[in-house]
Structure of RNA helicase:
Amino acid sequence: MSFASQNFSQEIVRALTECGYEKLTPIQKQAIPHARRGNDILANAQTGTGKTAAFSLPIIQQILDNSKQRSRFNVRALILAPTRELVAQIAKNIEDYTKYTDISVEAIYGGTKMSSQEKKLEKGVDILVATPGRLIEHMELKNVSLANLEFLVFDEADRMLDMGFIGDIRVIMGDIRTKPQTMLFSATFSSQMNKLAGDILQKPKRISVSPENATAETVAHVVYPVDQERKRELLSELIGKKNWQQVLVFVNYKETANELVKELKLDGIKAVLCHGDKAQSARRRALDEFKEGKARVMVATEVAARGLDIKGLPHVVNFDMPFLAEDYVHRIGRTGRAGEQGHAVSFVSREEELTLVQVENLIKQRIRRIQLVGYEPKNRDALLEKMHSKPAYRDRRGRTNNPSDQSDAERRARLRRAVLNKSRAGVSQLKK
């Protein structure tokens, strides 16, 4: 099925052809017709399935069909995403789709100057892509108006909840006075996610292109049991012996990322960093170097698990197993995209065996173990026997999120609620 068959304008079809888009992906086949009819959508879709085009192309076409003059600070379509990288990627894709139209597209996120973003917003924007935190900052300064919002999209909604953005989402929803067509896309679902969907969607069309919490069939999974202190050495050996040229490595802490990059460089392996303490410009440079092959390894924290679109990425390594089993799906979603083969490699210490079992239960697949000679973990058998024989231990839930990410997000949400409540109280007092 071609894009021309969906009655998109010649300008859109021409741009898609130049992007190399030929046939609709499964998520696009299911979502686009419903979105074109104006239905709310609740979609279960992994990264790399073409969901950006699935939600943005119908919005673009409807804006073209119902042309309006832009008004100061006004936004017609709002797309929310959890990370800077994902926001930038979505905006870039939409700019490519709209290159032969006069539709305006802007991206706002932290790490860049508020003043430059304010100038762009002042003119009015057709499609705004934003992180929740930065959007609220502009809302508080009256730099953006959602009073006439027509379309609202939540991309990677599960990740937004994991990062503690639920308070921010409620604040944003409280500022919307219209009933926009709303689409929610998520790779995983939880009770909290279902509750949010129930609150914001009106009779949604539910779409699923793969089993919930599944991983792409194009990804081969392997696990290397190894003691924590030997992981860095094992990583260098695998990169060298297997001649891996492009490797995205995930760690749980910024400190681990910093130290690992230093150690890899000492081993003669060029590596770059991507985590929350790095300025957005530095993260962009690191990603560019990695994409261009100037750096062999990029070491990243969870902030990079969503939104990184690296064409043909062959290897993703979980140096640390994620705190949340669902994040395994998002991390390895960087490889095996668009039908290409990918490899997901996980280093698992004795302390991380429980997380590995939870991951396997989630993806309904036992991951192949490879024991590399010379890297055998110490005293592992006793722990495994205990874990598999005692239900209370085996069924124990893992940590739900990276504590530092969650606490920062929660503090930010509490602060904003306090500011808004104080402001409302002041207005109420003035009325009296």
